Amino acid sequence: MTDAFKMIAIATAMTIGGGLASPAFAADNAMQVCGAKYQAAKKANTLPAGQTWNQYLAQCRAGLAKPAAVTPPAKPAPAAAAKPAKAVTPAKPAIRPGQPTAAQAAMYAREKQCGAQWRADKAAKKVPASETWPQYWSACNKRMK
Description:
The protein contains six helices and no strands. The protein is flat and about 80 Å long. The longest helix is centred in the C-terminal third of the chain and has 22 residues, at 102-123. It is mainly alpha-helical and 145 residues long. It has helices at residues 3-17, 23-28, 30-43, 53-63, 102-123, 133-144.
């Protein structure tokens, strides 16, 4: 027997026999517990037809007991001459990844406007033949700021 198989067999025996130390143990080791249950169900041929490991894991995790919330010890009452509370400063709003900042959004708007002007000027032949888009964009961006 390999070590991995032994661990699965032990975990299966503990799970089936109710030998888990606590619900917190089961929640902390959901992959191990659910893996052992999955292997046991697979070996006993009791898995629903077509059920994948990911589906089984999601179902198994939902069925595991959640660990009990740990309450911190009570703090002693503050002394009469305690320091005054600090003023709470509001936190900056979180920027989600991929969401442009205000400066970036303004720059994108300028770029769109300059692009429209570039196409119109190019069609009207107002742009010198030697001027390229980056040069036009630079000048237009400076004008719009």
